[in-house]
Structures are given as C-alpha cells and as structure tokens.
Amino acid sequence: MSTPTIPPILTDKVIATYDQGAPDYDGIMARYWPVDRQPLIDSLNLQPGQTVLEAAVGTGLNLPSYPAGVTVIGADLSEGMIEIARQKPVKANVSFQTANLEQLPFADNQFDAIASGFTLCVVADPVKAMQELIRVSKPGAPIAIVDYCLSRQPHVQKWQEMIADATANYGFPTGVIQWNALMDYDQLIYHSDLPIRVVSDERMESDNPFSCGCQLLLENAK
Ligand SMILES: C[S@@+](CC[C@H](N)C(=O)[O-])C[C@H]1O[C@@H](n2cnc3c(N)ncnc32)[C@H](O)[C@@H]1O
Question: Which helix (H) or strand (E) holds 12?
C-alpha cells in the first residue's frame, strides 16, 4: 500500500472546533465511541499520593474513574472543553490547566502516570506530544492510551484514506470532533525512536472506518 497523505491539523482550528463543539461532545462520544473509561484508568494501578496528567482532558470523560487520594491535572488547549470537565463528578483531587501537549508547562519527571483518551489522533504532531509526555513523566511511569487509530486491515485503511480529509478539516460529526483518520499507532509505538515499552496493545478492529481503535499501556523507558 502507498504511504497515505496525512492532512495537517492546525492548532488554532483545533481550539475553535473544540470550543464550539464542547456542549455536544459527550453526546457524540456516547453515540459513536461508547468506551468504558474505567479499565483505562485502572490499568495505571494508581496509588494514593500519586499525581497523574490527563493529557487533553477534554470534557473530562476519564475523570470519574480516578480513585480518591490521587491528584489529577487535566491539561487541554480548549477552555470550552475544560469548562464542561469542571462539572464532572470526581473522587480524586482534580485541577485544570490550559496547555499545549506539544509544549507542556510542566517540569521534567513531574508525573507518576499519564492517561490520554482520543487525543494523539487529534494533535498536530503526535511524536512531539509523546516526547513531551515522556519528558514530564517519571522513568518507569505508566502511560495509558485509548484512541481512534488506523486499521491494520488494508481494505479498511482504504476507507480511512477516503475520510481523512473530511475528518481532519471538517470533523465528524461536522464541526464537533476533528481528527486524523490515518493515525498510525503501529508507526508511533513500534517504529519511532520514542523511549517507550509496550506493556499491552489491544486493538478494536471494525469494517466501519470510523470505529477502529486501540487501548494501550506503555511504560516510560527513558
Ligand atoms: C477528541 S477530544 C478527547 C477528549 C478527552 N480526552 C476524551 O477522552 O474524551 C480531543 C481533545 O484534545 C484537545 N487537543 C487537541 N490538540 C491538543 C494539543 N496540542 N494540546 C492540548 N490539547 C489538545 C482538544 O481540545 C480536545 O479537548
């Protein structure tokens, strides 16, 4: 298969899209990507006193799954998404910060763990974002990811190539969720030079090009 062209994702457009789409976001996720977030957060095996980065917290769909005794910092570019996240019921000690994952305002080795849902398919430069997640988390820290991703099935990839322009430029549904339909996690976690160890890699394959995904547990191996 030829290397597909990946449309650029522009940061100011991401902010505008998610600010505007924030009120509809939870309903859209429940309808099209209904993922139980508890297993993702449980996979971090968090202990009381630990600090976690919610990398692109969005409307906070992961937040209710965090246990009491843990500190969570939810970072995101979109104030509109964060406003909705503030309303989520939580047991953990949660705070928020407007931040770009590609240039995080946090110290090296600040976090014990990182969680991220449906995010690296959205950031302009996923490798740069991962480098930042690795920088701000401690050596050995778990990094749990659930995301949309490029299928491993060539016949589904062809459909994903066909929807890539629309998902990156206009979003699906239009104007609510913008993402790169060609987000290649095999390339990112197995063929980049990132200092990570893959602890688990579970794929959700589908003939529906919108519904392919992965749930990963990585370890910071810097
Ligand atoms: C599809 S939503 C996912 C939200 C949430 N993590 C979830 O699991 O539902 C993508 C989020 O990533 C944020 N985002 C996109 N690019 C970003 C970046 N470079 N830095 C920080 N947040 C970003 C958007 O504002 C949006 O809230």
Answer: helix 11-32
Does pTM top 0.90 for this prediction? yes
The CA 56 to ligand 1 mean position distance, Å, reads 4
**Domains located in the chain, CATH noted:** 11-220 (3.40.50.150)
Between the CA of 118 and the centroid of ligand 1 the distance, in Å, is 7
pLDDT of residue 9: 66
Q: How far is CA 153 from CA 99, 158, 163, 190, in A?
A: 35, 9, 16, 17
Most informative mutation of 15, 106, 119, 123 for ligand 1 (most atoms within 8 A of CB): 119
Low-confidence ranges of the chain (pLDDT < 70): 1-9
* Ligand 1 pocket at CB < 6 A: 14, 18, 29, 56-58, 61-62, 76-78, 81, 100-102, 117-119, 122-123, 177
Q: Are 133 and 143 in contact (CB under 8 A)?
A: yes
